[in-house]
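Handout, page 2. Input:
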Amino acid sequence: MSIDRLAEASEVHRKSIIQIEAGRVAARISTLHGIAHALGVPLTELVAPVCARHPKTAQKPTPII
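Output:
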């Protein structure tokens, strides 16, 4: 899929997609959701490579208040 087509389908500006892809900016979760939806993949699949780079911890997660 071209960047222009992805930008249109995800409703994300093409410059933003280029910057996210290059790792120059961090994307908002809503932006990632739009990109995942446009690509037809679950958000978890889109972010799985990033999650895999972070070590797993044995600690109990901090509750969100």
